Amino acid sequence: MYTFTPINDAETGTAALAIYQANADYYQTIGEPAPTIQTVLEDAKELPPAMPASAKHFWLVKQAGKPVAVLDLIEGYPEQATLYIGLLEVREHGQGHGRGIITQLEQQLGTHGYQRIELAVVHANKDAGKFWTALGFALLRQVDGELSAGNEQLLDIYSKKLG
């Protein structure tokens, strides 16, 4: 069982940064600099246009009290019945945490009226595409996106129907 703690203070921010830093290869793959606490703070605030702050959930995911992942969710984006995963970063890959977190999330979403989950993966991040496909997500389309100023990437948009 995983627990979800909001990342909203120095302790949770520092724990999130450690998870970000454990994924240095991810940042290199997507063309972003090594993460800093500023990266965490920016991710904690980032929202699609016109979405209220109340739709954002930026969590430190723990198992048995130990931080294992960071999960960023947006409720009702891009459609009301959709939950958007903005980020899932796991500290230790190959331990089943990513699959376990998403499985638990899907089980809990069934009681909240969501019909699907959507997310974007940087096309160059082939391992992430394989991960989401293995969890039953289907590639919907590809779009151009700007990850940060001057860093434009091809994004693969994945979706999974719930229920």
Automatic annotation (TrEMBL):
Span of domain N-acetyltransferase: 5-163
GO molecular function terms noted in the UniProt entry: acyltransferase activity, transferring groups other than amino-acyl groups
A Pfam family of this chain: Acetyltransf_1
InterPro entries in the cross-refs: Acyl_CoA_acyltransferase, GNAT_dom
Organism ancestry: Bacteria, Bacillati, Bacillota, Bacilli, Lactobacillales
Domain of life: Bacteria
Signal peptide segment: none
The protein's name in its UniProt record: N-acetyltransferase domain-containing protein
